């Protein structure tokens, strides 16, 4: 986990050297191609399991906030019922609980049986490698936030607005500093502070360390 020094200035935006951007993109392309090849059986088995378990498309697509606040469509293997977004938004009690729980539910009733295993193994996020190859995401970076989530959290935590702005100066990542922190429930402000510090520090060495720590973080869910 990135350790945040007390003297970090969160009133500035990060400036990325060209060498850093080229190196990061190189790692993204090579790393994504390797992982796509390494996990090729998953692309055959998982879609079959999803189709056998529930009706609907294999891939789940949702608009997220990307680099500098630009929207992009994030890809995941579908781990919920096909109309999951409509279900939660049409249930005021569930929607309120979802928002107040930092946009996640411990026992989400929309998650399918296969979906629970996909999430536990983090295989649902594998299609995001396509987002990385497209240049919409990076292997390592801040979390890909939802637009309504940012609006809600900025209203709830006004102090987080400048941190979010800093975090959005870099591409969202499949993994990141808070995912490998060893904690499952990082409060939103602490999480976005880690994301902002990650963007300000922008270290290729830190990226490599986070990538190496990610498998252990995935196993810790068990």
Fold blueprint:
Layout: H1 18-38, H2 42-53, E1 59-65, E2 71-77, H3 84-89, H4 92-100, H5 113-120, H6 128-134, E3 138-140, H7 147-156, H8 161-167, E4 173-175, H9 188-201, H10 204-219
Parallel strand pairs: 3-4
Antiparallel strand pairs: 1-2
Describe, in plain words, how this protein is organized in 3D.
The protein has 222 residues and is mainly α. The protein has one domain. It contains 10 helices and 4 strands; from the N terminus they run ααββααααβααβαα. The strands form 2 sheets. A two-stranded antiparallel ribbon has the order 1-2. A two-stranded parallel ribbon has the order 3-4. A hairpin with a 5-residue loop joins strand 1 and strand 2 (71-77). Helix 1 packs antiparallel against helix 6 (128-134), helix 2 (42-53) packs antiparallel against helix 5 and helix 8 packs across helix 9. It is globular, with a radius of gyration of 17 Å. The relative contact order is 0.17. The model has no long low-confidence stretch (mean pLDDT 93).
Uncertain regions: pLDDT < 50 for 5+ in a row?
none
Please report the distance between the alpha carbons of the first and last residues: 19 Å
Total of domains: 1
Shape descriptor: globular
Count of DSSP H/I helices: 10
How would you spell out the order of helices and strands?
HHEEHHHHEHHEHH
Class per helix and strand makeup: mainly alpha
How much is the average pLDDT? Answer: 93
Characterize the main sheet. 2 strands, antiparallel
Report the count of strand segments.
Answer: 4
The amount of beta strand, in percent, is: 5-15%
Strand order across the largest sheet:
1-2
Radius of gyration: 17 Å
Query: Helical residue percent?
Result: 40-55%
């Amino acid at each position: 986990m990135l350790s945040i020094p007390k003297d970090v200035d969160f009133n500035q935006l990060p400036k990325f050297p060209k060498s850093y951007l080229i190196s990061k993109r190189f790692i993204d392309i090579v790393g994504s191609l390797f992982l796509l090849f390494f996990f090729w059986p998953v692309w055959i088995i998982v879609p079959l399991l999803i189709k056998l378990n529930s009706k609907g498309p294999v891939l789940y697509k949702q608009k997220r906030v990307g680099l500098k606040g630009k929207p992009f469509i994030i890809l995941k293997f579908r781990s919920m019922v096909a109309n999951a977004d409509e279900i939660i938004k049409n249930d005021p009690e569930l929607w309120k609980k979802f928002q107040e729980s930092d946009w996640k539910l411990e026992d989400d009733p929309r998650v399918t049986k296969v979906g629970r295993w996909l999430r536990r193994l983090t295989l649902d996020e594998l299609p995001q490698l396509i987002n990385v190859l497209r240049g919409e995401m990076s292997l390592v970076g801040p979390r890909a936030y939802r637009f309504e989530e940012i609006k809600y959290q900025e209203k709830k935590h006004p102090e987080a607005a400048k941190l979010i702005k800093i975090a959005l100066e870099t591409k969202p990542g499949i993994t990141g500093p808070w995912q490998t922190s060893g904690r499952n429930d990082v409060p939103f402000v602490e999480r976005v502070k880690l994301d902002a510090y990650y963007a300000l520090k922008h270290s290729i060495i830190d990226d490599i360390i986070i990538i190496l720590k990610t498998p252990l973080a995935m196993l810790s869910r068990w």
